């Protein structure tokens, strides 16, 4: 078994090109260093150095070992840092992904509070629909994902986010607009409207209408709420989106009414891959949440 000390000795010689200089750098005498390298060659069964009077040159085997040795040392250093970071985590990177409606509303609030506690952490943010976020989690590009329900609970651990209602978003002058001063609208009133829906909500909306003995008129389904809001802003139809998503489009031409009778509600969660290492930065972010299941507006620990 090759000793990690011998790996470091070997790298010092490879980098210095001289055993005397390497010994000085390592704060050891030259004869023991030479002996260690001879023992390493004997153990590996290859010649690592071509020894000259003043310089040593790596053989092909030595060049190969240097590449592997550098990788080993880098991995050792990274592992040591991660283990220390596991308990500290006041620096480093938080890699997180979020669906559009969360990335533009809830997440900025969380990041602001997180930065007050951990000002030296930097961020790697990815945005997309829930399927894209889980793909990024599976590939290890992000550590945490903020998604809409449902997701595979066998693959991911999670903390629930507050439920929020779905709203109908439209232009008041739209030909199919509902003229009412109320902040809500009955689902039945939307039955003959041209609906623009997210694919995540298609089954829920269709089932709710079936319970009323009705069939919705779905003009478009999409993986992203932004096109739906843009189409609604263009007067093409009525977008059915989470209430928080309404603030993502800056238009004075649109209004939003909460859907009731029955109410349509969507849930979300912060998820991460089960049984996979999470860096301390991710643990600290999860620490913003008080309980594993968050109810109502009690989103942050201590609030």
Report on this structure.
The protein is an alpha/beta fold. 39% of the residues lie in helices and 24% in strands. Helix 1 packs across helix 2 and helix 1 (4-16) packs across helix 4 (60-87). The longest helix has 28 residues, at 60-87. This is LysR family transcriptional regulator.
- Per the principal axes of the C-alpha atoms, what is the gross shape? rod-shaped
Average pLDDT rating:
85
Q: How far apart are the first and last residues' alpha carbons, in Å?
A: 54 Å
At the third CATH level, what is the topology name of the largest domain? D-Maltodextrin-Binding Protein, domain 2
Strand content: 15-25%
Query: What count of domains describes the coordinates?
Result: 3
InterPro entries: HTH-type_LysR_regulators, LysR_HTH_N, LysR_subst-bd, WH-like_DNA-bd_sf, WH_DNA-bd_sf
Domain HTH lysR-type: 2-59
GO molecular function, one term: DNA binding
GO cellular component, one term: cytosol
Q: Any chance you could write out the topology, listing elements then pairs?
A:
Elements: H1 4-16, H2 19-26, H3 30-44, E1 49-51, E2 56-58, H4 60-87, E3 91-98, H5 100-103, H6 106-117, E4 120-127, H7 130-138, E5 144-148, E6 156-170, E7 184-186, E8 195-198, H8 199-211, E9 218-222, H9 225-233, E10 238-242, E11 255-260, E12 265-273, H10 280-286
Parallel strand pairs: 3-4, 3-5, 7-11, 8-9, 8-10
Antiparallel strand pairs: 1-2, 5-12, 6-10, 6-11, 6-12
Helix pairs in contact: 1-2, 1-4
Organism: Anaerosporomusa subterranea
Keywords: DNA-binding, Transcription, Transcription regulation
InterPro entries: HTH-type_LysR_regulators, LysR_HTH_N, LysR_subst-bd, WH-like_DNA-bd_sf, WH_DNA-bd_sf
């Amino acid at each position: 078994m090759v000793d990690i000390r011998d790996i470091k000795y070997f790298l010092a010689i490879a980098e210095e090109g001289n055993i005397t200089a390497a010994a000085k750098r390592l704060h050891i005498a030259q004869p023991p260093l030479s002996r260690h390298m001879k023992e390493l060659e004997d153990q590996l069964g290859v010649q690592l150095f071509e020894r000259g009077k003043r310089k040593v040159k790596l053989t092909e085997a030595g060049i190969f070992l240097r590449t592997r040795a550098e990788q080993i040392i880098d991995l050792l250093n990274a592992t040591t840092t991660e283990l220390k970071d596991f308990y500290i985590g006041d620096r480093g990177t938080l890699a997180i992904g979020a669906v559009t409606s969360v990335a533009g509303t809830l997440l900025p609030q969380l990041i602001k509070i997180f930065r007050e506690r951990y000002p030296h952490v930097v961020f790697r943010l990815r945005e997309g629909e829930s399927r894209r976020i889980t793909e990024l989690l599976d590939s290890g590009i992000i550590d945490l994902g903020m998604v809409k329900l449902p997701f595979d609970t066998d693959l991911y651990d999670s903390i629930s986010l507050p439920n929020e209602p779905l709203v109908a978003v439209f232009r008041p002058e739209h030909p199919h607009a509902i003229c009412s001063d109320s902040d809500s609208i009955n689902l039945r009133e939307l039955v003959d409207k041209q609906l623009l829906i997210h694919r995540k909500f298609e089954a829920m909306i269709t089932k709710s209408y079936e319970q009323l003995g009705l069939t919705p008129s779905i003009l478009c389904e999409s993986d992203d709420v932004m096109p739906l809001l843009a189409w609604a802003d263009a007067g093409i139809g009525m977008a059915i989106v989470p209430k928080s998503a309404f603030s993502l489009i800056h238009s004075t031409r649109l209004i939003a009414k909460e859907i009731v009778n029955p109410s349509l509600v969507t849930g979300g969660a912060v998820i991460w891959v089960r049984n996979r290492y999470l860096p301390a930065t991710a643990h600290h972010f999860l620490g913003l949440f008080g309980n594993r299941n968050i109810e109502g507006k009690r989103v942050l620990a201590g609030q």
